[in-house]
Amino acid sequence: MTSSDSLTGRVALVTGGTSGLGAETARTLADRGASVAVVGRDRDRGETAAADLATRTDGTAEFYRADLASQASVRRLAAEFRERHDRLDVLVNNAGTFRAERTVTADGVESTFAINHLAPYLLTHSLLDLLVASPSARVVTVSSGIHTRATLDFANLQGERGYDGMTAYARSKLANVLFTDELADRLAETAVTATAVNPGFVPGTGLARDASLRNRLLLGAFARLPLPFTKGLEEGAETLIRAAADPDLADVTGVYLSDGEVTASSEESQDEEARRRLWDVSAGLVGVSPDWAV
Ligand SMILES: NC(=O)c1ccc[n+]([C@@H]2O[C@H](COP(=O)([O-])OP(=O)(O)OC[C@H]3O[C@@H](n4cnc5c(N)ncnc54)[C@H](OP(=O)(O)O)[C@@H]3O)[C@@H](O)[C@H]2O)c1
Fold it and tell me: Which domains does the chain have, with CATH numbers?
């Protein structure tokens, strides 16, 4: 992929696109000419981001305000997007959270699971017809290398029997890989691909804002020191951008991209029974039929 590969005429929607890796990804897609819509909770930051994107792209730049912890808000976002667009070429499910304490959303779901996994699931469901309407579309879901440390305990999927922030986060990132693989299989006969992404360790983002004080201090120190295992925003976003736009990956689906390369995801993430069960459980939690994307 070269920085000159034009995305003019393509439409991208990036959640968490007003800060961190999502904002960097949105800027690069706009620089290449794509119409870019970003999703975030803060109107001021969102409108500032959209104004900046407008100066970069040949297409349109938009901000959608949505709280992805709320299923009603996810549905509203999809409805508002389809009022302005009849097709979507790139959906980047990037928004994510890390919570030291267990909290529950208005829908009664543990927040990490709701924001990191159920929101991508429901948003992709709600926009699938627009993705299918594209001559070739991509669903990029931002996972993490930490998914390799997770197991999926269906009896404690939402930390109801004991919550640990890191366990909940890692599990949600495993769910991102399982979702991607199941989606890719279900969409095999379409021109829509699904890719899970690990950007690497990028300590300078806002991800740790709800982590414990100890973890926030640790990440702050990592962000300041030039350590070999840490990345800056630009470098971290490269893998998202590759998944979203690299022509070499146009027909590649159901893969995990880590540090820019197709890499084997964890053994746990390759459990086909678990991924189908997670799909069905997720459908129940967001109130849709599990028979979608087939
Ligand atoms: N940084 C890393 O080292 C790293 C490593 C592996 C994977 N990741 C993944 O990369 C993705 C981006 O994270 P980041 O590191 O760039 O952190 P970040 O700067 O905190 O970005 C996260 C984004 O998610 C959005 N978000 C969180 N909760 C939301 C909600 N309820 N509704 C709507 N938007 C919400 C935030 O939007 P607001 O502006 O509205 O808060 C923010 O823009 C995440 O999925 C994360 O798990 C990060």
Answer: 11-286 (3.40.50.720)
